[in-house]
Amino acid sequence: MPKQKLYKVIGAASIIAILVFTSSCTLLNSDKGKIGETLKQPERLDHVRASGDDDRLVIGLSIDTLEEERWVKDRDLFKAAVEELGAKIDVRAANGDDAKQIAQAESMISSGVDVLVVVPHNAEACAAIVAKAHQAGIKVISYDRLILDSDVDLYISFDNEKAGELQAEAIVKQVPKGNFVLIEGADTDNNAHMFKQGQMNVIKPLVDKGDIKIVYDQFTKEWIPANARANMEVALAANQGHVDAVIAANDGTAGGVINALTDHHLAGTIPVSGQDAELAAAQRIVEGTQTMTVYKPIPKLAEAAAELAVKLAKGEEVNTDRTVFNKKIDVPAILLEPIAVDSNNMEETIIADGFHKKADIYRNVK
């Protein structure tokens, strides 16, 4: 384990910490960080809060989308955790619109929130948010998805490369040899690239050995399930249906893949991975059409992120023990462990944590 990295944040009259939820990550590197240095406090510009506001800290959350089950859970859990810590929260959802997200972030910065929280849709475009926040003396936390080419102050997520490894390991266990299709996430989401890196850590040696042949490999625009379905249709047509396994980057893309397989009477016969432990995916797993999902205990992530945001707002110390390179700097990072879930451990993971109810998961199983 690398030497612990200590970041001491000097408090100011009102600090906006922008938590940027970014869904997908760059190469982890715990050796390149300047361990032991103190985060520089950017020059502070004065804000004026709206009249009538109380004196509580305000955390702003600029989130990519609320059109997916996963992000609604993050929003609700993070909001509850922030309020439990005595702060207020301002939430804005851009729903995949880069310009809208930047405008919303600017609005929160100028309104005088004490912590602005952002989940970037585009890992590179949101570097503009970091720059604007720093001009105002505001710290930025990148939540789940890493903001690239920026001086973002802190990154909290799960180990996304590990998530990709879990996906590939589960599928290779089912199909050690054969034709593989890779249905990745959005090319604009850095996490998608990290998931793929993890997958390739597992399958490339088998490709080099000749056991596995990647017959189709495509990113899915905007993570949209319909686009994943279209990609899978192309993969099946290009290979005359001779596909043995599918590594899908998340549960949404897995759902699109399985819809395509259903149309060809192949659902349940070809292993398919997923991620995020969505209810529909958990149902497909127990029904036999999806092989696994990667469960990220979101309550732990949301609660930890809320604590970090409030600490930064108060000028308290934040400690990390690793960094992630974002193409510009080694970003102080806190990474939680993801968990592979299939029908064998559904009970002691997703159900035991109360993430989904057993009755809902097994609703369609007789």
> How many DSSP-defined strands?
15
Strand and helix order? EEEHEHEHEEHEHEHEHHEHEEEEHH
Mean pLDDT: 87
Number of helices: 11
Tell me the structural class. alpha/beta
**Uncertain stretches:** 1-52
Helix content bin: 25-40%
Q: Per DSSP, what share of the residues sits in E-state strands of 2 or more residues?
A: 15-25%
Strand order of the largest sheet: 2-6-7-14-13
Evaluate the radius of gyration. Answer: 21 Å
> Span from first to last CA?
48 Å
Tell me what you see in this structure.
With 366 residues, this protein is α/β, with parallel strands linked by helices. The chain has eleven helices and 15 strands. 52% of the residues are buried.
List the helices and strands and how they pair.
Blueprint: E1 5-8, E2 18-21, E3 58-63, H1 69-84, E4 88-93, H2 98-111, E5 115-119, H3 127-135, E6 140-143, E7 154-158, H4 160-174, E8 178-183, H5 190-209, E9 212-218, H6 225-238, E10 245-248, H7 251-263, H8 279-287, E11 293-295, H9 298-314, E12 317-320, E13 322-325, E14 330-336, E15 339-341, H10 347-351, H11 358-361
Parallel strand pairs: 2-6, 3-4, 3-5, 6-7, 7-14, 8-9, 8-10
Antiparallel strand pairs: 1-12, 11-15, 13-14
